[in-house]
Amino acid sequence: MSAEPTPVHFFSHGSTMMLGEESTSADYWKKCGDEALANGIKGVVMMGAHWDCSGLNKIQVAMNPKPKKSPVAYVHPSKYVDYELAPDLELGQKCLDLLNKDGFDASANESFDWIHDTYLILIRMFPEKCPPTTIISANSRFDPHFHMRVGAALRPLREQGYLIIGTGGAVHNLYRNVWAPMLKYSDNFAQLTPPGDWAMDFRQAFEDAIVNNSGPALRRAITRLMKHPKFREAHATDDHFMAALFVAGAVGSEQDKGVYGKLWAETWELTNMCNSQFTFGEWSKAPQAVY
């Protein structure tokens, strides 16, 4: 057992071009990966935004021993094709056991191929070698309380040396992005105009909920954001918000009171997409050997 629970990250993965272009967010992902390795993580558990399963109370765990990677648009293949994924089936079974014990209808998916929302982050965090990793699906009903409970069920893994990451988006509405600079000039960071007021308003509400709440209050604050008057403008679909609820579950217990999230990096893309990077908790001051 770890002396302290491992930190938890909520990362906004942004567009596919975040894999190919340099940014402060990419720098921060690398820093987080270096710290995780220095502190001897056993593996990584991730919930992304691009995989969900249907059915009441159902959740799936990726158990494909040799997953492929879905292609990434607007990124040269050299950035990801040769990166070897490291699915952790033993960790996957631990996740299944914890989820089923907590009342979920959890099952293994032995054919799931990994998508850029997760392996983009892994490549940026761990460019030399992918750590043992397990991916958890979302549920297509997109119930906020359900996804918060998924994170809560897996919280014990933090006390066993595993790193929990949610990868979605702080503000992620593809319909309201400004695509022309990226499509014409491959410039995803062009900012010809300021972001819309709706994007700025929800981005601030998202940060406020994270940095001003801890423990169960964090879970309530993140859940309430789906009732924010600007939520539907900031998230035309719910999929990229579920990872935030997953994170709130994983770091929102009574034991987590006093552990506040911090905004460490932020990258605006396509004018209106806000890629905010948050971390909850800190590593020990005495790094140990890597995995």
From TrEMBL:
<dbReference type="GO" id="GO:0016702">
    <property type="term" value="F:oxidoreductase activity, acting on single donors with incorporation of molecular oxygen, incorporation of two atoms of oxygen"/>
</dbReference>
<comment type="similarity">
    <text>Belongs to the DODA-type extradiol aromatic ring-opening dioxygenase family.</text>
</comment>
<dbReference type="InterPro" id="IPR004183">
    <property type="entry name" value="Xdiol_dOase_suB"/>
</dbReference>
<keyword id="KW-0560">Oxidoreductase</keyword>
<protein>
    <recommendedName>
        <fullName>Extradiol ring-cleavage dioxygenase class III enzyme subunit B domain-containing protein</fullName>
    </recommendedName>
</protein>
<dbReference type="GO" id="GO:0008270">
    <property type="term" value="F:zinc ion binding"/>
</dbReference>
<keyword id="KW-0862">Zinc</keyword>
<dbReference type="GO" id="GO:0008198">
    <property type="term" value="F:ferrous iron binding"/>
</dbReference>
<feature type="domain" description="Extradiol ring-cleavage dioxygenase class III enzyme subunit B">
    <location>
        <begin position="8"/>
        <end position="256"/>
    </location>
</feature>
<dbReference type="InterPro" id="IPR014436">
    <property type="entry name" value="Extradiol_dOase_DODA"/>
</dbReference>
<keyword id="KW-0479">Metal-binding</keyword>
<dbReference type="Pfam" id="PF02900">
    <property type="entry name" value="LigB"/>
</dbReference>
